[in-house]
Amino acid sequence: MKILTVVGARPQFIKAAPVSKALCVAGHTEFLVHTGQHYDYGMSQVFFDELCIPQPDVNLEIGSGAHGQQTGQMLMQIEAVIQAQKPDCVLVYGDTNSTLAGALAAVKLHVPVAHVEAGLRSFNRTMPEEHNRVLTDHCADLLFCPTQTAVNLLAKEGITGGVHLVGDTMYDAVLQFVELARRQSTILEKLNLEPKRYVLATVHRPYNTDEPENLRAILAAFAELDEPVIFPVHPRTHKKIDELDFVTRRTQRAPAETGAQLAFIDPVGYLDMLVLEQNARLILTDSGGIQKEAFFFGVPCVTLRPETEWVETVETGWNVLVGADQTKIVAAATRQQWPTGSPPSIFGDGEASERIVELLKH
Fold first, then answer.
1. Quick one: 159 and 230 in the same domain?
2. What pTM does this model have?
């Protein structure tokens, strides 16, 4: 069996790592296409290095750009690769422009499409990701759902054929790499951090970065917290913060041992991020993947969006939605009551990747 896998962004590298491993173990051929949607070392190559993902067979080097331009260039080049490689199936992940381009290119060439992380919905039609995931699901022949909620949402849209509840490959990745992260990462020492004595923050979605007032309110809330806030800054967010000229910014500073400080750092690799997540008292984020990883580790999460695809994390009390409201962010970050113990097993048993490979084979 020959699988052509399309990836292009940081979260997809993580989701693909355990599936690539399972494909290799099962003796199947994987042709890996990197669109180049994320392209600098801290957002791309470091994940291939740390997660032992095979190096891409081809890197399209599309880079950044307007949505239509970026997706169109990907579509044209992926189509050519599919024609040359003649795979049995095209495998796509998540909800990026790379996802949609891969699915459309395959459909036009009558090659079966398999979608990992199918069935997610935010019901926010202003999000480019929402359109990408909906269109990809309606193109796909095999839909690999991480949760029962995703299966139910697909059924409401009339999609029942080829739908499989497999679990979450990001959970597979956490289970496979968390011990290695604990052994190898020195990020806590490097930043002079004590476990459960800091907050971890990430911001990258256009809802927050492209609206100056939203971004300013979020940064002001971070600075208001009376504990270190560690903020690995996405390159796109970095540019937007520079435009704001936010006065409390302290770039590349490790947090002080006492007192409030907002610490901006470069993006970190997967292993360092796992250690930062697991040892944080709280996580503030607009990332879907980091919401899940917080849940896996039993770390309270405050989501800087008015909605989430991962409704189970909110329903179980481990996540709260606050949008970009400064008062709500501070109130949620300083609340005392959070669930205790281990979160429920909503995202599978860590063997989603093996199930996906078995289903692809049949």
1. no
2. 0.91
Q: What's the total number of domains in the chain?
A: 2
Burial (Cβ within 10 Å: 0-12, 13-18, ≥19) of residue 342: exposed
Same domain, 204 and 274: yes
pLDDT per position as a tens digit, 132-159: 999 999 999 999 999 999 999 999 999 9
**Cα Rg, the chain, nearest whole Å:** 20
Q: 204 an active-site residue?
A: yes
Q: Which of 204, 234, 238, 362 is catalytic?
A: 204
User: Does any domain span residue 136?
Assistant: yes
The pLDDT tens digits for 150-205 are 999 999 999 999 999 999 999 999 999 999 999 999 999 999 999 999 999 999 98
Same domain, 201 and 288: yes
First and final CA of the chain: distance in angstroms?
A: 10
Angle at 122 between CA 118 and CA 128, to 5 degrees: 85
Domain span at residue 317 reads 180-333
Question: What CATH number should be reported for the domain holding residue 50?
Answer: 3.40.50.2000
Assigned domain for 173 exists: no
Cβ proximity of 241 and 216 under 8 Å: no
At 106 the three-state DSSP class reads helix
Angle between helices 10-25 and 288-297 (to 10 degrees): 60
